[in-house]
Amino acid sequence: MVSLPPASLLRVCLALLVVFFAASCESYGPGAGPFATIVIDPGHGAHDTGGKSRFGLNEKDLALDTALRVRDCLQKRGFRVVMTRTTDVFIPLDQRVAISNRTPGAIFVSIHYNWDRGRTGHGVETYACSPRSFRLARNVERDLSCAYRT
């Protein structure tokens, strides 16, 4: 196994997340499945930094970086993407919901990173709150879990 510095390892993990998420969405095909628009919500922002890694990275920055990469990847595949934020600003929860509600027929994806100070937690968390989103959630969970184990 190659030992990568933390920043390089993080870039590899972010790239894998983007590829696996985009592949999971692609199994629907833009316009062919139950959705063609994806609302991406990078968690936290501005004063709400979220968790902080042992490397000093804020969750808000990682979530935004990942969200922008996912956006670019999905747009190249023909999906319409709506972002709740594209810069380091704080968007209150009710406004994030309003953005999603103004986008009919879309699926809502919120990106977060969970930190575990004790280093006992591991793996991927995927939540789905509607029957339309279960298939995508299962695909993302499966693909990310497989990548995590290898």
SSE arrangement:
Layout: H1 6-26, E1 37-42, H2 59-76, E2 80-83, H3 93-101, E3 106-111, H4 131-149
Parallel strand pairs: 1-2, 1-3
Question: Could you describe the 3D structure shown?
Answer:
The chain is mainly α and 150 residues long. 45% of the residues lie in helices and 11% in strands. It has 4 helices and 3 strands, in the order αβαβαβα. It has helices spanning 6-26, 59-76, 93-101, 131-149, and strands spanning 37-42, 80-83, 106-111. A 3-stranded parallel beta sheet has the order 2-1-3, sandwiched between helices. Helix 1 crosses helix 2 and helix 1 (6-26) runs antiparallel to helix 4. The chain starts with 5 loop residues before the first helix and ends with a helix. Residues 1-5 have low confidence and may be disordered.
Kindly list the characteristics that best describe this protein.
150 residues; mainly alpha; 3-stranded parallel sheet; 4 helices; 45% helix; 11% strand; globular
